[in-house]
Amino acid sequence: MDLFWEHALDILLVTFFFNEIGVKIFELYGVDNANFLKEKMSSEGGVIAWVTLLAIAGFTPVPFKLLTITSGFVHFNFFYFVIVSLLTRGSRFFLIAFLIGNFGPAMKKIIEKKLVTVSIIISVILVIVAYFVYNFLIKFTS
User: Fold this and answer.
1) Domain locations in the chain?
2) No. of H helices and E strands in the chain?
3) CB-based contacts of 13, cutoff 8 Å, min separation 6
4) CA distances to 20, 23, 132 from 48, in Å
5) Helix (H, G, I), strand (E, B), or coil: what is residue 53?
6) pTM beyond 0.85
7) How many CB atoms lie within 10 A of CB 100?
8) Distance between CA atoms of 44 and 13, rounded to whole angstroms?
9) All residues at 6 or more sequence positions from 122 whose CB lies less than 8 Å from its CB, including other chains
10) CA distance 68 to 90
11) Cα–Cα distance for residue pair 142/130, rounded to 1 Å
12) Can you tell me the distance from the alpha carbon of 84 to that of 33, in angstroms, rounded to the nearest whole number?
């Protein structure tokens, strides 16, 4: 659970520091609209895309820290972030603990060998599900 609080603190700190320092850095380099990512994220498709990215990063070996920092940068909804993080990171750790606890060191070797392949498959499935959810929402709301 300590890792969860570390990621939650990351998103809050990055949000604060971006507002205080990050905007000035963008202005220094001549970027007129420093909130362009925030505007993209506030759209319906942006939220679904970001939740999908968080789910992929939470369940796979993709560096989750990178997306926690970026979530703070784009002012992603903190409630959604916490829910997705708890579901994906928690399910990953419980699944690995369950498999190693029930099948022993042999399962640990299998997980280490096949983790990337399984992660890619899960990532593709998550992207496909997000695509269908997005299309369903577009048709349902129109």
Assistant:
1) 2-141
2) 7, 0
3) 72
4) 28, 25, 11
5) helix
6) no
7) 15
8) 25
9) 56, 59, 60
10) 16
11) 18
12) 29
Residue 94 has a CB neighbour count (10 Å cut-off) of 11
Tens digit of pLDDT for each residue in 59-97?
Answer: 777 777 777 777 777 777 888 888 888 888 888 888 888
Tokens of 62: 């993709």
CB 65 within 8 A of CB 7: yes
| One-letter amino acid of 2 | D
Burial tier of 126 (Cβ tally within 10 Å: 0-12, 13-18, 19+): buried
Between CA 130 and CA 138, with CA 134 as vertex, the angle to 5 degrees is 170
Looking at residue 132, its amino acid is F
